[in-house]
Amino acid sequence: xxxxxxxxxxxxxxxxxxxxxxxxxxxxxxxxxxxxxxxxxxxxxxxxxxxxxxxxxxxxxxxxxxxxxxxxxxxxxxxxxxxxxxxxxxxxxxxxxxxxxxxxxxxxxxxxxxxxxxxxxxxxxxxxxxxxxxxxxxxxxxxxxxxxxxxxxxxxxxxxxxxxxxxxxxxxxxxxxxxxxxxxxxxxxxxxxxxxxxxxxxxxxxxxxxxxxxxxxxxxxxxxxxxxxxxxxxxxxxxxxxxxxxxxxxxxxxxxxxxxxxxxxxxxxxxxxxxxxxxxxxxxxxxxxxxxxxxxxxxxxxxxxxxxxxxxxxxxxxxxxxxxxxxxxxxxxxxxxxxxxxxxxxxxxxxxxxxxxxxxxxxxxxxxxxxxxxxxxxxxxxxxxxxxxxxxxxxxxxxxxxxxxxxxxxxxxxxxxxxxxxxxxxxxxxxxxxxxxxxxx
Length: 441
Fold this sequence. Notes:
alpha/beta, 3 domains, 9-stranded mixed beta sheet, Protein-Tyrosine Phosphatase, Chain A, 6-stranded mixed beta sheet, 22% strand, Rossmann fold, UDP-N-acetylmuramoyl-L-alanine:D-glutamate ligase
């Protein structure tokens, strides 16, 4: 068994493979973290870093691929040409657990929704693990823990190499353009990857989705999946079992009608309403009591780097939305703003179309600060549309410029629309640097 990639997913897969008696070799083209290297040494797992030894890799019976490695990589193409099966960590770990699977995907909202579902189930006393694109490696948990339920946040990359794995409850928040650089700039390729969330589901399983998403509804009509459908929407529709009316939320599942005042929800804003409705459907499908659900929906703490309030300084609020790595995420953030905004944008462009946020930027943004190594695409689109546009080469410079440009009552919002890899390790590093720079003001 060969594992390609030595991050959280790869190291977890290697440990599970070893526990299950496989002869394991892990190969990472980059440098391993000290922690991951030490873990592999402790488990006596054979590994290499800084290279891929093709002769050794191409002898594998099966390969577990890190979600970060695209299928277009030359090594992957050589592996497939030899007919060696390539699977994901999720596919592999799913073989070794009979726990119930709650799987959450979507271009936006999946981390918050997965975290909220986990919070609800754990608060209700269920024996539940959280994994996938969040928390500890799913494979590592299968190797070392014994959970009755898993809540898995799944990216399109993780869904690509799943074949026999099945979600008992699949949640699809939305599909908007994202990662198009990975999908040949072909939206349908990305949509196809997302729709794999319902692969292998039967009428005994549940598919929870946003009924107002035109792409998802089109795919349902096209695919006609043999699964029980549970829709959510802001207002009642024919096919929605969760919705709002007169400032109350309603969730009608299994002949039970759950209601709650909307203002009591811990998460505010329209996008968070959808996250709460989807989570509520899952909770009722799993027979969580009304009292437990009401409590959890009202006391959830939220997710770091997602519309996270950092501080208010001289009447200006600073909000860290570093997790907004696509345009639609930034749209939700801007839509929820009630004040004028100094917006920090930029990073590694993934084939973005900024048209989606143009009107909100024109109406709400006082100044734009572009934070990236190459801001030419941002300038080409936004120049002349906002009174003030400035560039920054570091987070410290961006925050100091925002501090100078913001007026009392404004919000400084880091909501970059882009991946972080040009100047930062990841979106968490970007968000932490933002918070640190704000606290130093």
